[in-house]
Structures are given as C-alpha cells and as structure tokens.
Amino acid sequence: MFPFRKLHAQCFFFLLKPCQNPRFQTTKSATKFAGKATVKQAQAALLEYLHSTRSLNFLDADNMCKNSPSFLQDLLAKTHLHTPHVDTKRSISRYLRYHPINEFEPFFESAGLSPSEYAPLLPPHMIYLNDDVLLMENHQALCNYGVPRTKMGRVFKLAPQVFRYKPGVLISKLREYENLGVSRKTLINVVAFSPCILVGGVDFDFVKVVEMLKRVIGKDCEWIGEHLLINKGCCNWRVMFQVLSLLSTVFNEKQLCDLITRHPGLIFEESGGCVLSLIGFLLKFGLSVNRVCVMLHEFPEIRAVKFLSNLRLCFLFLTEIKMEASEIGRILQSHCLVLGSFTMKRTITLLTNLNVGKKRLCRVVRDDPVVMKSWALGRRIEPLVNSYVEYESKALKKEFMLRLGYEENSKAMNESIKLFRGRGAELQERLEFIVNAGLDYEVVCKMIRESPRILSQTTDRINMKIESLVNEGYSMSDLASFPSFLSYSAERVKLRFSMYNWLKRHGAAEAGLALSTIIACSEKAFEKMYVNRHPSGLQVWRDLKAQISSES
Hints:
This protein is mostly helical and about 550 residues long.
C-alpha cells in the first residue's frame, strides 16, 4: 500500500502545479526559456513554410526567419498552446498548415522595424507577400542594387511610395544619380538611412552636397550614411548644402575637412539646421564671424543639439535673475564654449540651494561666469554663504584697489568696486595690459580711479580700442586725458571716427578735435554740431550706421 500512496501523493502534487496547464501560461513564460536549439528548429520550420510552401525568394525567407525575433516568439507561444508536447519543428509545421500567418509581419520586422512601427504599414486586406507584386519587385530591385535587407526598414517608414513604382522606375532613378557622379556605394548607404532622394525627381542639392564633401574630404562619401541615422526623418539636403556653403566661405578646405572629420554632427544633425541656429544665436549676442569660427574649431565632444540647448538654458537663467542685456551678451561672448558644455539646473532650484536672492546671484555670475559650471545637473550645491570663490574674489579686488590708491572701506572704494567686472587677477592683468601699451603705471592708476569701468572689459576689447585710437592719429597721452574712451562700445567709436574723417575730407570739420569732443557727446548733439555741417552729411551718417551695424 505504501508505494501506491506515495505515487498517489506525487500525482496529486503534480496536478496542483498551475504552470503545467498550458491555459495558464502567458506568451512570455512559454518562450522565456526557449533555448538556441528550439529557436533554430522554429526558424527552420518557418523557412520551409515560407520558401517551399509559400514560394518566397530563399534570401527573403531566410532573412525573415533569422531577423524577426518578436514574430518568432509569438509563433512559438501559439504552437506551444496548441501542441505543447510535440517536437518544435513538427509543432510549428503543423500549426502553419492550418493557420496561415500574416507574412508582412516578419517581413517588416526583418527589415528593422519594431511591431509598433510596422503596424500602420500592414495592408488591411492582404496577408500574403506575393499578392503585393509591386512591393516585392521594388524590394527585390533595392536588394539587387546592394541595399541590405536588414536596413530596409527606414525606406518602408520614410518613403513607402518607393515600393509603389512601376517596374524599372526605381533603378532608373538610381542610375540618374550615378550619371551625375554619385557612386553606387554612396547611394546604397544614403538610401538605407535617408531614402527620400528616391521620391520625386532628382535631388540636385544631394548631388551638390556629395560633390562638395568629396572635394573637401578627398574620398568617396559612403561613410555619410551612418551619420544620417541621428535624424528621425529624411535629410534636408538643401539646408545641408547651405551650411556647407556658409562654412566654406569662412574656412579653407583643409580647415573644413578637419572640422567635418572631428565633428560630423555639426553638418548632419538636423541636416545642419542646428549649427545654423547656433551661429545665429551667437551672432545675435555680439560674437563676430571670426569668433564663431574659432568656437566651431574648439567645439567640445557634445552633440550640437545639446550644446545649443545648454546655451539657451544658460541664457534663460541669466534673464530670470534679471541680469542686464549687455552683461548677458558679454558673458555669452567670452564663455560660450564653457556654457554650452553642461546643462544648468533650474533657476528656482539654484536660488533655493544657494540660499541667495537674484540680485546677489547676478553679482556672483558677473564677477566669475565660470562658477555656473558648478551648478550643472548632477552636482551637489552648497549654500553660497560659504562659497570660497566669492570671498577670494572680493579679497583680491580689495587688495587690487588698495594698490590703486583707494582708501580702505572709503565711499569711493565701495562705489568703484561695484563697477568692476571680473576677478581680482583679471583686473590686474587688464591694468598691466594698458601700462604695456605705453603709459606710466601711476598714470593708468589715476585713469582707473577717474573711470573704473575701463577695466570691466577683456584685454581683447581694450586692445581693439587702443589700436583704433592710434590708427586715427591720436597718442596714448590723449587716452590718459580721456580714459572714458575705453568704456564706449567699439561700434560707437568706429562710427564717430568714420564720420569725422569724412567731414574732414570734405572740409566740414577741422582737424585735431579732442577725443572727448568726438566720442562723449550724445548722438543728437553730434549730428547737430558736426553731421549737419555738410548737405550730404546726414545721408552719409545713416549709411555708415547701417554698414557698421551689419558688420558687427
């Protein structure tokens, strides 16, 4: 009796296991532990069905079996539910004999599309591939041309009308591009990632881009296909050609080749539209074309889209803390590469974590814009009260001002320290730069005490203004008499000097006017006292304004 009881108990325990009943098994659990042998048997059964029974091209059938894992998983689950104890290949063969499949599902999946992507492409009243003659003929034409079957998904997704062409049309389009100088390898790669060149007539902008890249890079362009993958849609070759044309006007071919090789994303992200937006953004904030070129050459290892997004976030932050527009422009001009390389936290988060108000935060950023890098996403922020950077900067500034001759904690010192922009070390560097330009140290200290704002700009801007001064025939002693000259914008200085020179040439102004007379007066006063002296003066003044404004 004992063996019988033991066997009865084992059978009872076996029946209690819910997973033994196939009705309780999900698709996932049924195929989760399917081994390689099982998958190979399933592939073999499906290949036999597609090729032998359904008469599909062997290469198409083989590709569908090997590169449609989701479809195969569902097929295994269904056959397991119907015949759970039969050999896998026999089970699938028997299932397919009585349950025709929608052949478009493994076909589209094997081309590189996920089920959610190919669902809208499924024909509503068709399940057999051979019934869609145009689709299969055009698919075969692309395959014969060299486009890999596994990369055909973007063609189906982005240019489905390609598969509705009449026989011979598709190949004739490819031949047209070849006749225009585009190599077969380049076409294969581009069609796989940006198939819209096959829609409509010949895309001559695409041909121009290929020609320009071949000339600049010095080799064929089959490599561009992989870079087109970063775009969700088709490439806009017209925009890309405009970007390349723009860059070719400011870079020579060697420099442009180096730029494209190191940062291909600048050209291919959003078809180059992103770099156009970036250049426009920087020009708007006062960067010269040459400075933009230098910035592109030193571009960090980051996507152009992300870089532009980071810059915009920094600009938004600076506007939200109520910083003046001129200061925002100065910071973006001098630190654009740094600001674009990290993502700022939100303004409200910074104000809370730093435990400061907008006014003080604005002052901290003006003194040292690089401090914003420590407020990037992912970094821990300490309250600004204990910030060593601020205390160090203030100490250096005070030390610098004492060397200039200010009395410690005097009213003049407290007022002047608010006008200085930059760290103490930077202020000392600017002072030494003016001294090295040809003035005595004591004279420069006196100039700074009279006009503290002259040290609130970079040495590059100071140098540019001193050069314009000397080129107009003035000496450094004239600068010592009128130090505020360095505080005026370069555009104002250039405009006033240009107009003054024109008036001198036409006998409407005497030579040797003082710097302060030319530069310091308001625009209305300058027009009244000097411009209106000549009948054509006002028109020349307006033309010069427009010219200098466009150059800047």
